[in-house]
Every structure is written in C-alpha cells, then in structure tokens.
Amino acid sequence: MRLSEKKITTALKRHGYKLTPQRRAVIGAIASSPDHLTPAALYQKVRQDHPTIGLATIYRTLEILAKLELICELHAGGSCRSYTIAAPGHHHHLICADCGEVIDFSGHYLTELEERLCRETGFEIEGHLLEFIGRCQSCQQNA
Amino acid sequence: MRLSEKKITTALKRHGYKLTPQRRAVIGAIASSPDHLTPAALYQKVRQDHPTIGLATIYRTLEILAKLELICELHAGGSCRSYTIAAPGHHHHLICADCGEVIDFSGHYLTELEERLCRETGFEIEGHLLEFIGRCQSCQQNA
DNA sequence: GCTACAAATGAAAAGAATTATCATTTATAT
DNA sequence: ATATAAATGATAATTCTTTTCATTTGTAGC
Prior knowledge:
homodimer, alpha+beta, Arc Repressor Mutant, subunit A, DNA-binding
C-alpha cells in the first residue's frame, strides 16, 4: 500500500507549504508511476501536462517531499560515493549523519532474506548495500 | 582485517593493469586511511606526495579498483538518486542491474541488528538503507 | 639493458547533475 | 478583494564526472 495523493497534499499543507499546480503535478506524476523516477525523468513526465514547469521546481518539490518522508529515495550507482579499502568478507556501514564517521561491521544477516527474494522474484542477486544512518555518541552529546 | 596494499597491487597486475607510481600512490592513500574518502578528498591527499597527479587519474584508478572489488564503495546522501512514492511502513529495494527494474519488499529484518549496533557503538540509529542488486528474470534470459 | 608498443597520464574541454539568484507571479489568510 | 510571503521559471553558477588527445611510461620480449 502506497501513500495516496490526497495524504501527500494534506501533509504538505499541514506543514505550511502552499499547494501549487506545479506541486500537484509532481505529486501526481510520482504517485501514478510504479517505478522509481530520476529528477530528469520526472521532469519529462510532468512536462507532458504542464509544459512550462522548470526543472528547478522539480528539484525543490522533491526536496520537500523527501524531507517530509512522503517520497522515498533510492540510491543506485552514480555520484554520491566515497571509498575505502575492501575488507575480505562482507561488511556494512554505520554512518554518523553529523560528523560523517563510518563504523564498519561485518556479518551475514541477509543470507536467508536473499534466498527468499531469489525464490519469490526470480532475481539472481549479486550483492547488496546495507547502511545504517544515525548519530555517534559524541555528536549526540554536542547536540 | 583489510586488504593489504600488496594484495591490491598483485591483483592489479594479475588482471593486466600496469603498476604506475600514480596507482601506487592512490592505493597507498586509500589503504592508509581509516576513513572513507571521496574522490576529491583522495585527490588532495595524494597530491601531498604526488603533486602532479590529475583528478582524472584518481577517477580512473577508483573505477578499476572498484570493478575488481579491491575497494569498497559507500553511498551517503548526494546525487545518485531517484524517487518513488513512500509506502507507510518500511520497505527495501531489489534493483535489476541491467534494466533498472525495482521491486519493493517490506519487512523488519533489521530490528535486532539495529539494537545490537546501538548497544555496541553508542550510536543513536535513525534509519537505514538496504538494497539488493541483481538481475531480473527477463534480463537473465536475454544474457 | 634496450626496444617496441599498448596502456596510462595530465591538462583541458565537455558533459551531466544540482543548486543559487532574482524578478515576476500566485496561493492563501485576512 | 487585498496584502504578503512563498513559489515559480529562466538563467547562471556550481559541482562532479567523463572524454579527448597529445605525450609519457611500464612491461614483455629480445
């Protein structure tokens, strides 16, 4: 079950944002698509009904919707990246949202889940990305 | 335990890549840093010892090392993003590396792990990112 | 050690993605 | 209806990454 357009517009108003035709169009386009859309793809889609909308408005609207957690962000390749030396064997990351500290932890928590996904979806799974975001102890104290 | 510089250079040669001073410098910089480094940060660091290195070489080297899985990539905010409407309650993604299809799945597989990480690291955990990468059935057939 | 040659490099340009600026328009509370 | 702050579109500016290309260099084979 996904959030309805109605709930999203209500939430926007509740947080003091104006309900403009452009925002309605962006929300409509996201809500009516089963796929994940990049900002550029969304721009194309919205322009079919709303040819004068600017790309900046798309970005601004996405920023608000993501902040309010009304839409969900997917990371898949591309630019937001940093690197560290690989550890043999699997590990995952725990990242501090304030200071950027990264703690690695290892383990095989996902094997069972991975097998189930294979069975149910027919995917051949190559890898996964597991990251926790939070706040480290010293950043908690500084806040 | 992390991969040693030695193992990385050996693996490079084994795959037919030349061992240039620039590549050594990049590998040395990554291997000697406990943190995750962005391409730009790495560039700064390498230039201390190797002032003439070009940023393109950093990118090229990172690309090779990541392809050989000698370094490990971290995604944390930033640009590589696409969006879909939020589902109430948690869900995760299964992404086809070939066609980009995304399947959402939900569940609470990580609660226990999250609690353990809290206890052991003192982090206050806000959220997480869990994505599986693989190949969907039709892309497996086309390959 | 020399040589040949493909591979790698640095510099610079090009391209892609995102954000900021600013004058104009508009949603909304009154 | 009106006033006002917020939002918009166009454009410029940034930032990040990739490409191009002439030059340099690592390495296999002698």
